[in-house]
Amino acid sequence: MTSRDDDFRVRPGRVRDGDARSFIGQVERAARKLARREVDQAGRKLAQERGKSFYVPESGERISGTYRQSVQLVSGKYALVERSCEFTLVPWRPVIEKELGKQVSGLVRGDGISWELGRQRGLGIGM
Length: 127
Prior knowledge:
Distance between the termini: 64 Å
Strand order of the largest sheet: 1-4-3-2-5-6
Helix content: 25-40%
């Protein structure tokens, strides 16, 4: 086993001590780590295929671009949102599918995203 495997090994002593919450927390953290690793690997592979750079948005970051396709991974389904020189993979939701090929934006929140779809109203300067 490598040191990376240690991140995902369950520590049996915790369960024997009756600390179920700690055990569940370990499992949830391990699952999030595996999902992030899988998304990163898929992003790097897609970057080579598409000739664009892949980036992972931080929680609280607003993303925007064209929704190009969905990508099914073991950890779930992701939306590929592309800009001119880069793209990202964010959690897919059914509401996004009708936006295929269209401009989308959203706010990344933890392991999810709040999509902002349709016409956006705001202040603008007319020319």
